[in-house]
Design goal:
Elements lengths: L1 H115 L5 H14 L6 H19 L2 E11 L5 E11 L3 E6 L5 E7 L2 E6 L1 H7 L5 H12 L21
Antiparallel strand pairs: 1-2, 2-3, 3-4, 4-5
Helix pairs in contact: 1-3, 2-3
Length: 264
């Protein structure tokens, strides 16, 4: 009886200890399950985040590639622009140099025109004096000056291509040595020489361009300069032919061939 009582007492004493162990075990299992659940959730979250990061990385890589290409194109365009700028700068510099040369040439041509004017036949001298004044006007561009210079030399070219007839008043020395103004007819063989004759044939002469300008020789002095007799009748005949070309015929007039040293 005492033995049975002891066993029951031991059993009663042991029951609370087993129950406590089971409760601890259940707590541990519950904690383990929570940990595993959290671990699984973390894994799922990480997998999702990893995919997002990988996608972001791909997008960033694509953007970097586009940016590099854009920068490369920008560098290429910048290089082309710089190259074009250098080319334009060189062209501008060349144009400025050419413009300076043009200005110098125009100035030289203008100066030459002023020195040449006295060597032209008197009718051309009048036209040149009027047009040369236009070259010195203010506000005239280089292109306008060049155009006016060309028009001057065209006048000379056109005059030189024909026999020109001109009515003009001239100062002519008389036999008594006095100077008188007479209306005469001038006939020019190009720009190098010409003749004149009065309507009555009493006054006549020969003229040509020299180094110092245009000179006239009158009556017997003209014959002496030409080295041949200058007949006023021949001059009146030439005048008639020029006024009425249908009456043209061959005539013989003396001319003066300029010496090479006089050509300048």
């Amino acid at each position: 009886m005492k033995i049975l009582y002891s066993i029951l007492t031991l059993a009663i004493i042991s029951l609370p200890s087993v129950s406590a162990e089971n409760e601890n075990l259940n707590n541990l299992v519950g904690q383990w399950l929570d940990i595993e659940s959290q671990k699984g959730q973390l894994q799922v979250n990480w997998n999702t985040r990893q995919q997002q990061l990988e996608q972001s990385q791909e997008l960033l890589s694509a953007e970097i590639s586009v940016l590099k290409q854009t920068l490369k194109q920008a560098d290429t365009k910048k290089t082309d622009v710089d190259k074009r700028r250098v080319e334009l700068s060189e062209k501008q510099s060349l144009l400025e140099q050419e413009q300076v040369q043009v200005k110098q040439q125009i100035a030289q041509a203008t100066q030459f025109s002023r020195t040449l004017i006295t060597r032209l036949p008197p009718p051309l001298q009048t036209q040149w004096q009027e047009r040369i004044l236009l070259l010195s006007q203010e506000g005239v561009s280089d292109s306008e000056k060049l155009e006016r210079l060309l028009s001057l030399f065209k006048l000379v070219h056109d005059f030189d291509e024909r026999i020109a007839l001109n009515r003009s008043s001239m100062e002519i020395p008389s036999a008594a040595g006095k100077i008188q103004n007479l209306l005469v007819t001038q006939m020019y063989l190009g720009v190098s020489q010409g003749w004149y004759v009065s309507d009555d044939g009493l006054f006549y002469g020969f003229g040509r361009a020299g180094k110092l300008g245009w000179n006239w020789w009158h009556n017997e002095a003209a014959s002496a300069e030409l080295g041949r007799v200058l007949n006023p009748k021949d001059l009146l005949k030439l005048k008639s032919i020029l006024q009425k070309p249908t009456t043209a015929e061959f005539i013989n007039l003396p001319v003066k061939v300029s010496e090479a040293k006089e050509v300048s």
